[in-house]
User: What shape does this take?
Amino acid sequence: RGYTTGNEAVGGRFFSDLSDYTRGFGADIELPVDFIKSIKSSKVKFGVLGNISNRNYRARNFAPVANLNASYDLIYLGPDSIFMPENIDPSKFSYYEITGEQDKYEAKQNLYSGYLMFDIPYKKIRVVAGARLESFWQRLYSKDFLGDDVTVSQLNNDILPSVNVTYQLSDKINIRGAYSKSVSRPELRELSPVAYVDWSTFI
Assistant: This one.
């Protein structure tokens, strides 16, 4: 029998199941402060956030295979007729499962964070400044194409500052400048050996 890769370009069939359980919590507190008497209406805000996720992913791949004795006329049929029910037959075309151990993974990721922010207006200037501490943990278990274990475990702690300064030039015009730091983290599927196909480009 022949062998081919299961994808839309060759008539393959792909099925997947994703279970994602996410729980979260958060709290924010805002208080007025008067640490400098000449500055009125100042505020301090702080809070915490937690996000806990558990994920299980399973995929199954099936590829069409032409029988070695199948007619060449059958192979060159158009896409609107080649996979007609009468052509799915052991003597013509058959579907074989090509699912591998790499087509599934189990993963967890936890995000815990806390922040502190000050909002200080002074005459025509307003300053909003603070920082956020994030602790992000990811763990993934899967297998590669050879059946060997693939385990990813990473913990990152990041301090993300932010400053926003606004100057009121007039009643209708504000001049604003800002600085902030952010972080980009990989998706769980990007850490796994699972192959993904872009159905718009078939890549």
Summary: The CA atoms of residues 77 and 83 lie 9 Å apart.
